[in-house]
Design brief:
single chain, alpha+beta, Nucleotidyltransferase, domain 5, 2 domains, 6-stranded mixed beta sheet, globular
Length: 491
C-alpha cells in the first residue's frame, strides 16, 4: 500500500492539508480560508480555536478526497505562519484571548520601551526590536488580560506560536513543543545556545514556565492521537524556513525568494552564525540531529500586494494576470518609478514611517508605465535585499530559487533576473512551504533516505537567464535608489 506524508500548512489567510508522495509530488490538497480580525488600526488578530477547527477540517477532507485512511499516512509535517502568539489555559486547553498575528503593530509601544536594549537583543537573538516578533505580543497579552501575569507565573498558562498550538491540540495536550526555527522568531531564544534565554525572558517579563520545549525541525514530536494512535508528527518548521528547505537549498549560499503579498528572501549560511549590520535578520533555518543550519533573511513588505493595489485601488487592471501583458507592451519605462512604501520599507531600510511615491511622470505617461513600474518595484526591492546578502556574507548567488503566486508573471521574473544579473529558477512544485515540512518529516520517519534523495526529486520547470547589459542595469538601479532616497525625506 502506497503511503504519503500529510503536510499541514497553516498560513495567515488559509489552512491547507497536502498529501505528498515519495517523488515530492502533491497528489492531493484541500484548502480553507483563514480569517483575521482588525479590532483597531494596525491591530491584526485571529481566533486560535478557529485555526484548530480548520486544521481538523482540511485534514479529514484531504483523506476523504484521496479515499484513504490513516493507514496510508506515513507521518505528519507542520509548517506555519511565524511569530503569531497564542496563550492558552493549560488545564482546559482553551485560548485566553485572540492570538496576535505576526503583522500586528499593537505591541509597538512595548517595543519602544526596549529601544535602548536593541544592541543587546540583536546580539542575543539576531533580530531587530520590532512588534513583528513574538516577545512583545506575549507581553501585551499578559498586560491586557486580568490576572494573566499571575496565572502565567504559577504555570497555569502556556504560550506557543501556531506550530506549538497545533501540536498541543493534535497530541491532546501531551506535547508542548516548538521547533528551533519558530523559536528563533520569538525574540526569547538565544540564537547561539538555541535555548530560551533567562535574561531575555526577564527583560520582557515572560515566565519561562509558559514556554514550549525547543526541539529539532526533523524529529519525532509524538503521536497525533487526536487523529490516529499510530501516526506521528515528524517535521516542524516556520513557513519561510520550510520553503528554503523545500527548495532544496541545503548548501551554504543557496537562496530562495518567496513572492507573496510581501517577499521573503532567505540565504543558507550553513553552520556559521552571521550577524547583519545592514538590516537583515539572522535566523535558524532548521536543525536535523545535532546539526543546525542558519540563514539570513530579508523582508519586502509590499510585493504582490502592489498588483492588488493597481487592481483594487487604482482600477488600472481588471485582473492581476493583466499586469504581465501591459508591462510587456510598455517597451520603455521612460524613467517612471513607483516606491510602494504603503506600510513603510523593509530590508535594508526598516523605515516604518516611509510612504509610497511615484516619480518621473510626464504627459506621455499612461497606465502601461504605471503597471510596469509597479512590477519593477518588486524586483528593485528584492535587489536591495540581494545586494546586502552578498556584501555581508561575501557569497555569490549565481541562481535564485523562487516561489509564490507572483512567479506566474513572466515579465516580473525576467526583469528580476536582469536586474540581479543572476539566473531565476522556478521549481516544478510551487507548494514549497508544504514540501519543506514534508521533507523534514520524511527524513525523520525514514520515508526519504537523505538530503541527496530529496535533491534528486527537486526539479526546475523554468529558468530565467539575464539578458540586460551592465550599463542599463546600473542606470535603472541608480534611478531606483534615488527614488527611495527622496521618498524617505517626506514623512
Amino acid at each position: 500500500m502506497e503511503k504519503f506524508i500529510l503536510s499541514i500548512d497553516q498560513g495567515t489567510t488559509s489552512t491547507r492539508a497536502l498529501l505528498i508522495d515519495k517523488n515530492g509530488v502533491v497528489v492531493n490538497m484541500v484548502q480553507e480560508e483563514a480569517f483575521c480580525s482588525f479590532p483597531h488600526s494596525g491591530w491584526v488578530e485571529t481566533d486560535a480555536l478557529n485555526i484548530w477547527v480548520s486544521v481538523i477540517s482540511v485534514v479529514n477532507a484531504v483523506l476523504v478526497k484521496q479515499n484513504i485512511s490513516w493507514d496510508s499516512i506515513d507521518s505528519i509535517g507542520i509548517t506555519n505562519q511565524r511569530e503569531t502568539a497564542v496563550v492558552w489555559d493549560k488545564e482546559t486547553g482553551m485560548p485566553i484571548c485572540n492570538a496576535i498575528v505576526w503583522q500586528s503593530r499593537q505591541s509597538a509601544e512595548i517595543c519602544d520601551r526596549f529601544e535602548d536594549k536593541k544592541e543587546f537583543i540583536h546580539k542575543k537573538t539576531g533580530l531587530l526590536i520590532n512588534p513583528y516578533f513574538s516577545a512583545s505580543k506575549i507581553r501585551f497579552i499578559l498586560e491586557h488580560n486580568p490576572g494573566a501575569q499571575e496565572r502565567a507565573e504559577k504555570g497555569e498558562l502556556l504560550f506557543g506560536t501556531i506550530d506549538s498550538w497545533i501540536i498541543y491540540r493534535m497530541t491532546r495536550g501531551k506535547v508542548h513543543a516548538t521547533d528551533v526555527s519558530n523559536a528563533s522568531r520569538t525574540m526569547l531564544m538565544n540564537i547561539e545556545t538555541l535555548s530560551w534565554d533567562e535574561e531575555l525572558c526577564k527583560l520582557f517579563n515572560v515566565p519561562m514556565k509558559m514556554l514550549p520545549k525547543i526541539l529539532p525541525s526533523s524529529y519525532d514530536y509524538g503521536v497525533a492521537s487526536f487523529f490516529s494512535k499510530d501516526v506521528h508528527i515528524h517535521g516542524v518548521a516556520g513557513d519561510q524556513q520550510a520553503a528554503l528547505f523545500g527548495q532544496a537549498c541545503f548548501e551554504e549560499g543557496e537562496s530562495k525568494n518567496t513572492y507573496g503579498t510581501g517577499c521573503f528572501m532567505l540565504m543558507n549560511t550553513g553552520e556559521k552564525l552571521t550577524y547583519s549590520e545592514k538590516g537583515l535578520i539572522t535566523t535558524v533555518g532548521w536543525k536535523i540531529g545535532n546539526k543546525v543550519t542558519y540563514a539570513l533573511e530579508g523582508s519586502v513588505f509590499i510585493g504582490g500586494a502592489v498588483v492588488q493595489w493597481l487592481r483594487d485601488k487604482m482600477g488600472l487592471i481588471a485582473h492581476s494576470s493583466d499586469s504581465e501583458a501591459l508591462a510587456m507592451d510598455c517597451r520603455d519605462p521612460h524613467g517612471v518609478y513607483i516606491v510602494p512604501a504603503f506600510v513603510g520599507l523593509g530590508t535594508p531600510y526598516w523605515d516604518d514611517d516611509a510612504r509610497g511615491a511615484v516619480f518621473g511622470l510626464t504627459r506621455n505617461t499612461d497606465k502601461r508605465h504605471f503597471v510596469r513600474a509597479a512590477l519593477e518595484s518588486v524586483a528593485y526591492q528584492c535587489k536591495d535585499v540581494f545586494e546586502v546578502m552578498k556584501s555581508e556574507t561575501g557569497l555569490s548567488i549565481p541562481t535564485l530559487k523562487v516561489d509564490g503566486g507572483a512567479t506566474a508573471n513572466n515579465f516580473l521574473m525576467q526583469f528580476q533576473s536582469n536586474i540581479l544579473d543572476t539566473k531565476i529558477d522556478l521549481p516544478e512544485c510551487l507548494q514549497t512551504t508544504a514540501l519543506g515540512a514534508a521533507f523534514l518529516a520524511g527524513l525523520s520517519s525514514k520515508y526519504y533516505k537523505n538530503l541527496d534523495h530529496i535533491k534528486s526529486i527537486h526539479h526546475c520547470q523554468k529558468l530565467f537567464t539575464p539578458n540586460m547589459d551592465e550599463e542599463e542595469r546600473e542606470k535603472l538601479y541608480n534611478g531606483w535608489k534615488k527614488a527611495v532616497s527622496v521618498t524617505r525625506m517626506f514623512k
